[in-house]
Amino acid sequence: MFPQRLDSTVAYGIARAMMDGFNRHYRLFRAESARAKHRFETADWHAQQRGQRERIEFYDLRVKECVMRLEKEFQASQQPMDVWQQVKLHYIGLLVNHLQPELAETFFNSVTTKILHRTYFQNDFIFVRPAVSTEYIEDEAVGTRPTYRSYYPRRDTLATELQRVVTDFDLHVPFVDLERDIERVHQAMLRHFDHVKLRSNFQLQVLASLFFRNKGAYVVGKIINGFQEVPFALPIVHQRRAQLVIDAALFGEDDLQLLFSFARAYFMVDMAVPSAYVQFLRSLMPRKPRAEFYNALGLAKQGKTLFYRDFLHHMRHSSDRLRIAPGIKGMVMLVFDLPSFPFVFKVIKDHFPHQKDTTREQVRAKYQLVKQHDRVGRMADTLEFSLVAFPRDRFEDELIEELQRFAPSQVEISDRDGDGQLEVILKHCYIERRMIPLNLYLQEAFDTGLDNPRAHQQMAHAVIEYGNAIRDLVSANIFPGDMLWKNFGITRQGKVVFYDYDEIEYLTDCNFRRVPPPRNEEDELSGEVWYAVAKNDVFPETFAPFLLGHPAVREVFLQHHAELLDVVFWQAHKDHILAGHMHDVFPYEQARRFQAPVPAESI
Hints:
Layout: H1 9-41, H2 45-74, H3 81-95, H4 101-116, E1 148-151, H5 158-167, H6 178-190, E2 203-207, E3 211-213, E4 216-225, E5 228-240, E6 243-246, E7 250-251, H7 252-259, H8 274-284, H9 290-296, H10 300-316, E8 323-324, E9 333-337, E10 343-348, H11 360-372, E11 382-391, H12 397-406, E12 411-414, E13 423-433, E14 436-437, H13 438-448, H14 453-475, E15 478-479, E16 488-490, E17 496-498, E18 505-506, E19 511-512, H15 521-525, E20 537-538, H16 543-547, H17 551-561, H18 567-578
InterPro entries: AceK_kinase, AceK_regulatory, Isocitrate_DH_AceK
Binding site for ATP: 325-331, 346
Family: Belongs to the AceK family.
């Protein structure tokens, strides 16, 4: 029971210090996000990526700072539970009229669980459910921007208003030809909404901040005409040195789903009220969970909080059981899922086969590398959890046996809460969006028979997309290591995404070599490697036997991606990256671009 009176001055001091810690965190987070505009204007791409990486570390640093302050000033871990009961109530009072209350609640949870050493979401003194509504929050301070701007064009002023949409962002770089770009957007837009009759509510609503990621800036908004609402995004890129173009016009939920994919790096967006941005974005993509919007905006801890709330809600309203995930079992990760829930859970095994020369710490470092790197739409984002509890009766016995056999150090089965119900507690796990493993997707086509046109198309699409995924990873300075089909999955949008990171390496750390010719007939007939292989040596021509055993797969692969088997391709990209070049990887098809801009590096 929480106290009916708040009589502890220490409790208020702790609550105030925690709020100060959160406010410092969000102030620094927002300042770093705001700097993305200047980096875009000056085409400082390496600084842009560095800023994206470093911002990820902000949260844990601020939590650590806050914990240290609370211990130093209040001996917080030694305070009795009745004081901590009051801390939460004081903190709720401080959330009134706060612009980021949901983020502040998550910060409170992070700090409190560090101090009390209790398991997340099992603690009576944290925010398992939100205490403060995020509805209708706006920054009403003088001179601040609203969440979104509204424009009310007439039929004859639509192009003019579109131009105002772009110029209102006050980019300090001229466009090569803004009027030309606006006319292209105008013509594209007319094809995507019913403009024969403009209704009385006809308007454009556009989020007030640009969305920055890598070498692009994105205008995000929607067209409203009567009952019709059409999401849109306008990518702005550098064409020539210090000149801009609108590169494409994206329309509809599917286009924006790709832009905000879980397999892409986080955006840098200057937001006073994140919940208002999430609410607007959900109106554009209602099928996307709120957790993924917070992740896309760089607020990954809030994304974790919402994800876990969604998961607990789903567990209460479902009855299926957690099982070993379908597909080929991995040598490093034990993977399981709940059939009715669109995510998979991955636990690092305690021991690996001899061919896997790695450690638990190295595997975790690889996953952290992916978290901080540009994922270019080809590497799944992961949520990392510690001490996650599940009801024992929701596990299939076979899965429990696998966990106890391969990862006993990571599993505890106990009645931790003393409520008479056994729980399975995982000390550490990763959670990823579920995809269809590419080897199973291909097998579906083979089982149907490639003489079936749809099955053949499915196979060809998978093989072509697989090669495209490899190319995009290479452009981002990533060598996937284990390139087998089973380590890739296909999303509901038909994109191939990599998700097995234990052998991932920077492309620039690899040594690409040709297989030396056999020295003699014995070498030629030997099933063993006759040449020396160092740790990071890669022989692209050896990929074919593992990947192209099926004749139809081989035919499609060689037609579209034969150069991936040639050391020249890999070495050329490595040299290009070492020379400082950053490749363009667009979150939309090349065919959607208005033109192929001349790279700034060539001007």
